[in-house]
Write a structure and sequence with these properties.
Helix content is 51%, strand content 16%. It is of the alpha/beta class. Strand 22, helix 24 and strand 23 form a beta-alpha-beta unit. The longest helix has 40 residues. The radius of gyration is 37 Å and the shape is elongated. The protein starts with a helix and ends with a helix.
């Protein structure tokens, strides 16, 4: 590419074995064999088996599958004749299947929606070849040495050297982040700067804004800058905060299991002497400690969030990214095309004192409207601004019909200005162009309302005003006029003299309308915003000022290059804006933030943003992004309204809140139950509950929990980012779990010494001699604990879903309330049914229920007390 930039055209043609008429078919094949197809390799499609595996295998389902395998051996393969019972295996396998199928369907839908968006790159380009002349060919068929014709709106199909150009402006923002289109020229240049700074080279992934050109292809496919960037995007998956959290909670539950299960096994084995029964019971304890529905609840929470966001015109490509979106405390964002509109607008039309002046806009409009060359972005911006203001400003109304064009002097890159001559009774030459070149042709200036000679002092005053506008990130051109010019023959460049400078036009890539409101909303939800852009610092500072983002200091890519990882780790905490960054520097900033313990989102739209998206916890792409940016993203916003980010973060936090509710309440409740079982196993002469009863209890309780994804979440909880904290789950289990054990033990005592003896003439279990009476005694005892466990376990959902007073200050959703009380009613009825007889429980006497009511009431009071102590000690409940 550097050789192409410095070589003369003939020398370049010889090197590439081509010519002005392009390649012949033989040369095309030779070039394709030598340099390859014009295809960038990135993002291989994930195969169906891998997608299925990803949907079904995660830490929680792995625990359940292990238990299902063990249960298959103990309950079916090793069971005695006629004693095989597949119930536990069926229940566990069903949970895993429901969870996996839900996740697979939702992610497949999102993938299909994302694939439909990958239509950004133009599929054909205009190439000149010897046999066929100019023809449209697929982008992938372009080869090194092809002669390509470019016009406004075209994507650049490969890296190329410009050999002919007229008014050519190209947007390289997808590659460099620079918002202003760059001029491209034909002449060979000596330039040691970055390739993208060289003015006679054009690059794949950029596009023609205005003008026309012919170029010769120098590099294709993976050899282009675009291809190099695509290859540099790491395919190594970054473990997000969600995945880290899920793994840590999984290992916490496994550790509890590894401690509890052997203890239960040995206590029962030694106390009862039946090691097979003890093994079965220890296995049921393991199942009981595991939140079986967790994979399903987690997937349902995530899928619900994805569906809610789809209504906001947002594609969630990866289900986990919903929760990651809720956890972010820092959003890093590119500037061009994400915060800004990626277009040029006329912001100010000023006299030379920097005051708004309609005359300046009027003259600029006449110049832009009447020129016959290709109108560039600035001309279009001037015409649009005039059309917007003509309804309220009489002076601008009907300008096109009031003037007649006499002549024009077209723009060229040497003069960097253009002129038109118009008349409406009075003839005027109106010229606009680069400030320095305009000052060179002006002899006068409209200074303080009068036409004054352009002295050195006035010139210095003008340059200072322009410099101030440039400092604000604006691109400035000047407007001048001359009344009644008298050319010798036709108008020419020589007539651009003795002109009167009127004022300036200041252009900017403006922020999207929703940007300022979105940044303010994010701040209210505890999310800091940092700008990581490839654009220059002046433009970036101006945009930040417009959207209300304070900028004390800007770190440039050159500064960042010299920083150690430790120094960068300190800098990222203080600095809000990083400018002129390369793609890898953006990724480095994000990695530094994550290493500091932050959960980081990144929003961008160009190839230069793909590496940063991969490095972040959640990558967010906008509707106008290039395909590789969309491919690297986890979330794609289909509309320009950035306020959807706020909705996404709230949805993510609701998702997390409901997941952590289920984990904490189920893990603590199960731990309490298992702790109770441990105590009972040591002192009771029989099992407190049969394995099938434990599994059925868990199943009905889990059914009650299926509405948790739709539960209400307290507003206060949504106000700050939340992170997964396994230690918090452990503390919660140890604090809240044993409170249920206290009441389980009182229920044991009640059933063993009061309720059961009342049905057997006051006799305790050890005093009964009839085996049938002993079986009935055990069945009534187990029924009592079976029912009490369900009441306490289910009502605790309402106790610990909020730090507030339940049912009064904070209510569960109607669906959760309905399901939880339906579950209680269904399980309370089981001892009185044939199902109860099948699982080994017997009907309970009426005397049991007042005691149950007292137990439940006292339990709710105690849980509320412990809940308050827990919040006071650890800062939050969930």
């Amino acid at each position: 590419m550097r050789f192409a930039a410095t070589a003369q055209t003939d020398e370049l043609f010889n090197q590439l074995e081509t010519g002005p008429d392009g390649l012949n078919e033989t040369h095309v094949e030779n070039s394709r064999n030598k340099y390859g197809n014009n295809q960038v390799t990135h993002g291989k499609k994930v195969s169906l088996p891998r997608r299925i595996t990803k949907a079904f295998i995660n830490p929680f389902t792995a625990i359940l599958l292990c238990l299902a395998i063990v249960s298959t051996f103990t309950d079916i393969i090793l069971a005695g004749t006629g004693e095989a019972d597949p119930t536990a295996v069926i229940i566990i396998t069903t949970m895993v299947l429901i969870s996996g199928i839900l996740r697979f369907i939702q992610e497949s839908r999102s993938d299909r929606a994302a694939e439909n968006l990958m239509k950004m790159i133009k599929t054909t380009t205009n190439v000149r070849r010897q046999e066929t002349g100019n023809q449209e060919i697929p982008l992938k068929d372009v080869v090194v040495g092809d002669i390509v014709q470019l016009a406004a709106g075209d994507m650049i199909p490969a890296d190329m050297r410009i050999i002919k150009a007229k008014d050519l402006f190209i947007s390289q923002s997808a590659l460099t982040g620079e918002s202003t289109p760059v001029e491209k020229i034909v002449t060979a240049v000596q330039n040691d700067e970055a390739l993208t700074e060289i003015p006679n080279l054009a690059f794949m992934g950029s596009n023609v804004i205005s003008g026309s050109a012919t170029g010769v292809v120098v590099a294709t496919g993976d050899s282009t800058i675009f291809g190099e960037m695509a290859k540099s995007v790491s395919n190594k998956p970054v473990q997000t905060s969600f995945e880290k959290g899920v793994n840590s909670v999984s290992w916490l539950l496994i550790r509890f299991m590894l401690i509890m299960v052997p203890i239960v096994l040995f206590i029962n084995g030694f106390a009862k002497g039946d090691w097979m029964q003890a093994t079965l019971f220890a296995l049921s304890v393991a199942v009981g400690l595991t939140p079986e529905m967790l994979p399903m609840i987690v997937t349902t929470c995530l899928a619900k969030g994805a569906v809610a966001m789809s209504r906001e015109k947002t594609v969630i490509k990866n289900l986990n990214s919903i929760q990651n979106l809720g956890s972010i405390d820092i959003l890093c964002t590119d500037k061009t095309g994400t915060l800004t509109q990626d277009k040029v607008v006329l912001l100010y039309h000023l006299n030379i004192h920097g005051q708004e002046d309609t005359r300046v806009l009027r003259h600029a409009f006449l110049n832009s409207y009447y020129q016959t060359g290709l109108k560039n972005l600035m001309d279009i911006a001037i015409i649009q601004k005039t059309q917007e203001e003509q309804n309220s400003v009489d002076e601008l109304r009907g300008l096109a019909s009031k003037f007649t064009k006499i002549d024009e002097i077209p723009f060229d890159f040497e003069r960097r200005r253009m002129s038109v001559v118009v008349t409406n009774g009075k003839t005027q030459m109106i010229t606009k162009g680069a400030v320095e070149e305009m000052l060179a042709v002006c002899r006068f200036a409209e200074y303080e309302g009068k036409v004054e000679p352009l002295t050195e002092d006035i010139k210095a005053y003008i340059l200072k005003k322009v410099e101030d506008l440039n400092e604000d990130g604006m691109r400035v051109i000047a407007v001048a006029q001359k009344s009644n010019p008298s050319p010798v023959g036709a108008f020419s460049v020589a007539d651009e003299s003795n002109m009167v400078l009127m004022g300036y036009l200041a252009f900017l890539d403006p922020p999207k309308e929703s940007t300022a409101a979105a940044i303010k909303a994010l701040k209210e939800y505890g999310v800091g915003v940092k700008i990581l852009t490839g654009d220059n610092d002046k433009v970036t500072r101006c945009v930040c000022h417009q959207v209300g983002l304070p900028v004390d200091k800007i770190v440039l890519g050159s500064d960042l290059e010299e920083m150690s990882d430790e120094a960068l780790g300190e800098a990222v905490e203080e600095i809000t804006v990083f400018a002129k960054l390369s793609p890898q520097q953006k990724a480095r900033v994000i990695t530094a933030l994550r290493n500091n313990g932050h959960s980081v989102g990144y929003m961008g739209d160009g190839i230069n943003d793909a590496a940063a998206m991969k490095a972040s916890d959640v990558g967010i792409s906008v509707d106008t992004a290039v395909d590789i940016a969309k491919e690297s993203a986890d979330v794609i916003l289909l509309e320009k309204d950035l306020m959807v980010l706020e909705k996404g973060i709230i949805e993510g936090r609701k998702t997390y809140a409901n997941m952590i509710k289920y984990i904490k309440m189920t893990a603590s409740s199960n731990f309490g139950n298992m702790f109770s079982v441990l105590v009972a196993s040591a002192f009771l002469p029989f099992l407190p509950m049969l394995p099938i009863q434990l599994i059925l209890l868990n199943l009905i309780y889990d059914f009650s929990c299926t509405a948790i994804p739709w539960d209400n979440v307290d507003k206060e909880y949504l106000a700050v980012p939340r992170k997964w904290d396994a230690s918090s789950v452990g503390k919660f289990m140890v604090w809240i779990g044993p409170t249920s054990s206290v009441f389980d033990i009182t229920t044991y005592l009640l059933m063993y010494f009061v309720i059961c003896p009342s049905m057997f003439g006051g006799l305790l279990f050890t005093q009964l001699t009839d085996p049938a009476m002993q079986v009935l005694y055990i069945a009534v005892f187990q029924a009592g604990w079976f029912v009490e466990s369900m009441w306490t376990q289910t009502l605790v959902i309402h106790m610990i879903r909020t730090p507030k007073i339940p049912f009064i200050q904070s209510r569960a959703s109607a669906l959760l309330t309905l399901l939880s009380f339906t579950g209680i009613a269904a399980l309370t009825a089981i001892p009185f049914t044939r199902l109860g007889a099948y699982i080994g429980v017997a009907p309970l006497p009426v005397a049991f229920f007042p005691w149950l009511a007292l137990t439940v009431f006292l339990y709710m009071v105690i849980v509320n007390v412990f809940k308050r102590i827990f919040v006071k000690r650890y800062g939050e409940l969930l």
